[in-house]
Amino acid sequence: MDTAPDILKVSILGHDSIHCGFHLIPYIAHTVLATLPASVYALITDTNVAPFYLSAFEQAFTAEINKLSSAKPRFLTRVITPGETVKSREGKADIEDFLLLERCTRDTVILALGGGVIGDLVGFVAATFMRGVRFVQIPTTLLAMVDSSVGGKTAIDTPAGKNLIGAFWQPEYVFIDAAFLETLPEREFSNGMAEVVKTAAIWDENEFTSLENNAPLIYTAIRTPSTGYAGRHIATRSTSQSLLLSVIRGSIYVKAHIVTIDERETGLRNLVNFGHTIGHAIEAVLTPQMLHGECVSIGMILEAEVARGMGILKQVAVGRLVRALRAYGLPVSLGDQRVTRCPGARSLGVDRLLDIMRIDKKNSGPQKKVVILSRIGATYEQKATGIADAVIAKVLSEAVKVEVDLSVDASLGKQHVKMATPGSKSISNRALVLAALAQGTCRLKNLLHSDDTQVMMVALQELKGASFAWEDGGETLVVSGGSGALQVPEAGKEIYLGNAGTAARFLTTVCTLVSAPDTSTTTVITGNARMKQRPIGPLVDALRANGSDIAYNESEGCLPLSIAPKGLQGGVIRLAASVSSQYVSSILLCAPYAREAVTLELVGGAVISQPYIDMTITMMRTFGVHVTRDPGTDVYHIPQGVYVNPPEYAIESDASSATYPLAIAAITGTTCTLENIGSESLQGDARFAVDVLKRMGCEVVQTASETTVTGPKRGGLKAIGEVDMEPMTDAFLTACALAAVAQGGEGNVTRIVGIANQRVKECNRIRAMIDQLAKFGVQTKELDDGLEVYGRPFNTLTRGASVHCYDDHRVAMAFSVLGTVVPDTIIEEKRCVEKTWPNWWDDLENKIGLKVGGVELPRAESSTAASPGTPFSPPTASASVIIIGMRGSGKTHVGMLASAELSRPFIDADAYFESKHKIGVREFVHVNGWPAFRDAETDVLKEILKEAGSGHVISMGGGVVEIPEAREMLKTYAKTGPVVHVLRDIKEIVTYLGEENARPAYGEPVVEVYKRREPWFAECANYDFINNPDLAGGEATNAEVSRFFRHITGQPNLAQNVAAGKRSYFLSLTYPDVTPALRHIPDLTTGVDAVELRVDLLRAPDHDALSAIPPRAYVTAQVAALRRATSLPIVFTVRTIAQGGAFPDNAEKDAFELLGLALRLAVEYVDVEICESERLITDLASRKGFSQIVASWHDWSGKMKWNDDVVSSKYAIASRLGDIVKIVGKANALQDNFALYDFVAKASAQPGAKPIIAINMGVEGQMSRILNATLSPVTHPLLPSKAAPGQLSFTQIQKALNLLGQLPARRYFLFGNPIAHSMSPTLHNTGFEVLGLPHTYELLETTDVGEHIKAALAAPDFGGASVTIPFKLDVIPLLDKLSPAAEAIGAVNTIIPVVEGGNRILYGDNTDWVGIRESIRSRAPSIGAPAAALVIGAGGTARAAIFALQSMGAQRIYIFNRTASKAQALVDAFPDAPVKLIKTLDAWPAEGPAPTVIVSTVPASATTVSGAGTGAVLLPLALFDAAANGVVVDMAYRPAETPLLGLAKRAAPSWATVMGVEVLLEQGYVQFETWTGRRCPKHVVSKTVLEKYFATA
Ligand SMILES: NC(=O)c1ccc[n+]([C@@H]2O[C@H](COP(=O)([O-])OP(=O)(O)OC[C@H]3O[C@@H](n4cnc5c(N)ncnc54)[C@H](O)[C@@H]3O)[C@@H](O)[C@H]2O)c1
Ligand SMILES: [Zn+2]
């Protein structure tokens, strides 16, 4: 080692044994060898740490050992598995055996290199090995550095609990090398910061202040690699490195100090357990998903709230603690998503937590001990304080109840409350800037403590513009102003503003005031990612125009900014002020310090929020600068000058908050005086006392800066008729609460108007008040811009209402006012007040004198009632389908196809319009104008809905959504019926519309119309149909139209085989973009029942690299593209990272938006993770229509046990929320699969059990994938990656099932004669092979239906048979039962063995007709129900043809046969069918239509197109209506081109032709499916069969 590194030492128990620095490895080796002579040095570390540092240690120790001249000691290393599980007896034994094997003796030195796990375990080994050997701690996690390595506690875990066996054993040294933190995962770093913040909080306010202000800088230290050993010496140490080291050292110092005074843990040492009493209880429930520090972080806040509730700790301190912990990425409440997603989260009940706390080591007797903070940096006692359960319970519970005793008259005691409410945010921010820029000292009182004010203070300090100090435990801020002299912050230090918007705007101008001789070093202000998107452009433009030098460092118009220290020029400044009044205030506040007096001209449209500009000007006057405004203009003159600090400035209370205590006085008949808010208030809501409370009968006394309200005797509030609350909209909720009990006037009504904007606040507040007041029995009426409340005597209101707050602070506080006169009122979400008044409930108790109790709401699990939100409303299958969309989007085309598919009449609203008005749409507009047309169109909508509200398909005109009334009608309709928005790319629409002019021209560019209408279409519709020819595969396929419209009308395309006793599968598509794979989809999906689209894995080609959230449009296009390639049901999955996917964990809203999109796209299955908010899930489920919800739970930890309560509780939740349950664990051993199997067997045996997907991840879990029955996820060798480890392919699973005896091989036959050339064996055997099925299909050629056939049918492995000529009738006597089709046709071509009532029976079916029908349908779906069809021939096949046509709804079926008598027999056989005999093939009876479907069932040789006299049927040209789109099927098997098909190709090219072999294939697919329960892999089978067919032609 060249020179000794610079080391900071901390003393513990009288020794300087803790050494801190950077890059210490050589130093460690040197020090250890020089001062701890030994025969063996054994270093223990784990597999995470070893790759980074082990070789450096080996080198350093070898080098030092080589220097020794005496006997060379050995240097041993041992690398063990990481993680808490090695901290066990076995883990300890393993190390001991290693040491023994290596013949280590008492003079060994053991080195523990790693986190707390290694330190605790290795320390304990050292404590007992050979009755104790020397050891050295080399902690590599922050937690280990500041906590576990200091103090000498060592331990291991046992199944009975953590750290139960151990010893105190002090290390010889603790080497803290902060450079190790550069490789530590950031979550682990945060974990350690929780302890650091904790230590500062109990002990050292200065240290705490440094922590709360410097998070970004501290992160810089661990995020910047210190290459070249930077930091080893002070000379190379960066500012951030020095800070990091000082923070670590500071924290260690406190712990070392406490340990030294109290080594064996009596009282004082308990102080370091701040946050741990509640934190440990939380950890016990949430481990291992949540880390210790994360739980302690939440514990600290809850324990601080205990202190606050006791009236000991101020909210200021709680707020600082919250912000400091958040700054290090730590959770601060049980509502944090990281917590709520944990499997255990739902069992974080109050009782459970209190129960766990009961066994805390700190307790003495039954009382729980909590470290009570008295302020930041100090505790209430020098030890933990005993606290009653009820106090803790109140903090932990999520709901509250104001305790009221109506028998006591509150006003009797003439209670007079005097208090201040939290400071106004706007005024606080302005006051900070003014006081800092002023000369002299100012004491700011009632400052709001928020993120905004916090970063503002830090920034002003960094600019050396002012200094700050706290007095009165943080109640008063002493500002020593800098008279406007500011400096560029020190090199490399950026001013970080987080997401504090006001601070960013005010400080931009403040930074231009900085003036320095060297203008090349600039001031940089920056913020978090969100801040970097918020606009600052107009302000920068104005300042640049004025001569300031401001550069955008990243994107134009946003932070970060580089501002040159040139001072502010002044003179005329022009500013666009229509976006934010904060730009104006920013310039006003700084203007006095410009080089010239400033004239500020506001330009560019209406100025926004004038009251805030006035507020700034008024406050500037208080600080000595008088702004003047040219009357009637937006021009302001600001003189030059320096602000002068008043000795004290009391920040006004927030006026909206002030309404609550005043209203409580009003409703209870007591008196309340609010300080810091009076008649001179700068805020509109301050008028509430005079404009509302006085009118209601209160006595109101208002001075300039104080307001006192005394209420009438309880029950005496007066209803006041109309009140316009436009100037104080936020106060309307408070007014509603009072109006509920206000009487008198006309009908006890209070009509609150002028508050329409409150519909779009945190929630729709008008609705919220109406719905929640109803729970009290209070009636209301909604108005356009407000509501009427009908007051009732307070003692008649319903008691015990449970108020839902929509997470809106104002709803909660308003109803707590009502709760003071209505006993047992529960406010469900107490924490929502934190937004503006975090200690409201404590103030209610401690300052207003009402008792507030905690209430535990029934847990979601136990309550049967679903959460609030829309009830499940089953959609109506018969409701008409309404189609809307842009003109040119393909509404009519899609609508007609849908109508054919659904066999429902089609109504085109345009055509309806024309027939009603006897004039075309275009002409109507021309004559009457657009407005008249719109009215007429609305009427048309009304009429159609009335007359054709069910059983139709209706296409609406594109302009219908222009009319608000029509939009409302559509939206209402969409609640129970399908409204489909047909979407098509705008470019396509423009091209298409350019080509037609049948309808009125828009009179404006189509694109404009599109932009305006698309949002309306989207809002009116509940489904989206994508009709985009741009997509791969072109225009929406008929198959997709069929699937989509069937789905939304109650015939969903759900997966086959999801039924008891069957096995179903889905294929996971793991592509970032599915389009390149579409051509492989038929191969990929062979055998499966559905495909899963892993939406979280999708990545748009031009995607934002930072965002893992695929855009909505991209997802839509992907689903649409997939639909072109397959009609299989889609499982739409957005898997989060926590659940093993790639979707961000904190983007719940985005995830649900995509899931909602899936429902709009009529996706069949939507996978929802049950750890998401239940409210969102039930809301989604309420919109699911005919789609199904897969409620899924994944536990990747490997700790979930299938026989554990956790799984049962997850199962219960998932069964309640989903149609299909999915639970995924991880197998560590084969046995885990048996446990799973047991669980599934038990669960499925319950009556009404939902289908369950239950799987274990990992290779050990493969067996569960084989045995799982419902929708087993499978992969395919062609996929880019497996969706999950251990996944198998469909074929693999079939083979495995066969080997396990779960899929026995079966034999299938063809009965007939002659059959040697049959294609059926090729057909079926190819199918079996492709699917991996072990079956075989053989020919059984016999002369009659005799013993051979009987033996085949009787064999136990008989799987089924095809029957062909001549046995289709002869076989019938051997069968037990016939299908209706076989019965009607009088022939059997398929035999299926089925189990009925426990017996095997033989079932005869006929699939010939299905083959005919499918051949026709798949080639010309638009034919629908043909008006006329023709069958040539009269044999058995003709019977199948007639049956097929009848099933298609053919309106006429012509029969032609040479022997008319045979034909007549046929007619008689189908008495219900519209069958007509015809005599010639070129004229149709009774002027009937020409057939569009022709099926010939006679041999090819029996037809001819040329010669007469052969005895063959002559096929005339006139047979085909060449203008139609028809289908002709020739059942003749050979030749491929029969005379009939040849004629069709020549005479009617628009007709589709079907060869006999193609019909054979179609009926074969059906057979295959009935036998195996699997779709036949048609593409491979047909290719193989046709190749063979043509090869042998
Ligand atoms: N003895 C005490 O007084 C005391 C105090 C607090 C906690 N503990 C104990 O400490 C343990 C927790 O310690 P921890 O939080 O350090 O966990 P840990 O030891 O499990 O380390 C966390 C993770 O980080 C990895 N890691 C460690 N250093 C790394 C580095 N520099 N780079 C990359 N990866 C690194 C580890 O392999 C591990 O996966 C618990 O067992 C707890 O009981 C003991
Ligand atoms: Zn701890």
Automatic annotation (TrEMBL):
Please list the cofactors this protein needs.
Answer: Zn(2+)
Q: Where is this region: 3-dehydroquinate synthase?
A: 1-389
Q: Give me the reactions it catalyses.
A: shikimate + NADP(+) = 3-dehydroshikimate + NADPH + H(+); 3-phosphoshikimate + phosphoenolpyruvate = 5-O-(1-carboxyvinyl)-3-phosphoshikimate + phosphate; 3-dehydroquinate = 3-dehydroshikimate + H2O; shikimate + ATP = 3-phosphoshikimate + ADP + H(+)
Q: Which organism is it from?
A: Rhizopogon vinicolor AM-OR11-026
**Domain named Enolpyruvate transferase: which ranges?**
419-844
Pathway in which this enzyme or protein is active: Metabolic intermediate biosynthesis; chorismate biosynthesis; chorismate from D-erythrose 4-phosphate and phosphoenolpyruvate: step 3/7; Metabolic intermediate biosynthesis; chorismate biosynthesis; chorismate from D-erythrose 4-phosphate and phosphoenolpyruvate: step 4/7; Metabolic intermediate biosynthesis; chorismate biosynthesis; chorismate from D-erythrose 4-phosphate and phosphoenolpyruvate: step 2/7; Metabolic intermediate biosynthesis; chorismate biosynthesis; chorismate from D-erythrose 4-phosphate and phosphoenolpyruvate: step 5/7
Which positions fall inside the 3-dehydroquinate synthase N-terminal domain?
A: 79-190
Q: Which residues form the Quinate/shikimate 5-dehydrogenase/glutamyl-tRNA reductase domain?
A: 1427-1479
Where, in this chain's numbering, is NAD(+) bound? 46-48, 84-87, 115-117, 120, 140-141, 162, 180-183, 191
In terms of PANTHER family, this protein maps to: AROM/DEHYDROQUINATE SYNTHASE (PTHR21090), PENTAFUNCTIONAL AROM POLYPEPTIDE (PTHR21090:SF5)
Free-text cofactor note: Binds 2 Zn(2+) ions per subunit.
UniProt record similarity statement: In the 2nd section; belongs to the type-I 3-dehydroquinase family.
Q: Which residues bind 7-phospho-2-dehydro-3-deoxy-D-arabino-heptonate?
A: 131, 147, 153, 163, 195-198, 255, 269-273, 276, 292, 361
Q: Spell out the subcellular localization from the entry.
A: Cytoplasm
Task: Provide the binding site for ATP.
Answer: 885-892
Q: Which residues bind Zn(2+)?
A: 195, 276, 292
Q: Name one GO cellular component term.
A: cytoplasm
- What this protein is called in its record is Pentafunctional AROM polypeptide
The record's region (Shikimate dehydrogenase) falls at 1305-1593
